[in-house]
Amino acid sequence: MRMNTTFRNILLFAGLLLLLSLVWFFRSIVVYILISGVLSIMGRPLVDLFCRIRIGRFSFPRALGALLTLIVIWGFFVIFFSIFVPLLTEQINFFSTIDSDKVVALDAQSGEELWACYVDGPVRFAPVAFRDSVYFTSDDGHLYCVSAENGTLRWRVRGGPGARQNIGNRRLISAWPARGGPVIEDGIVYFAASIWPFMG
Prior knowledge:
single chain, 200 residues, alpha+beta, four-stranded antiparallel sheet, three-stranded antiparallel sheet, 40% helix, flat
């Protein structure tokens, strides 16, 4: 009896492995099936709406309703990506790197590094590009403003009351690290420094 249970468990495990390997092998087909399922769930109310429309004696056949629904859904995706992708690509040129204490600008087409600006601590949040400048904060407690064209430092301002340092992540950082991304509103840059609210 125990042998039969063990054999059955082995067969179940082998069957599960086989199923997972088939899903992995045919993963593109599985993805297409999932996408079509999501589209059908999203589109069914629209198809029903089109089928209820009557113009005189004419009513939309279900196939035409499905075709119009696909056009509406794809139109929505085209409009969405045409609006938001350019906004993202404008910002995606600038990256922060925690491990090397720098912000780099990359060419959006080739990925080539255009410039790098090194600071005295990790840059934990994405920089903000505004007009011809890039703003970012660092664990060294400063807000930095550099040229978007070549990364030259324009100015920096300390967020804490002094230059005192503490140990953080096995290195010296400011006692008031700037661990939040800068925010720009009406041309004014806002940022905060310190780990705890009562310290800032």
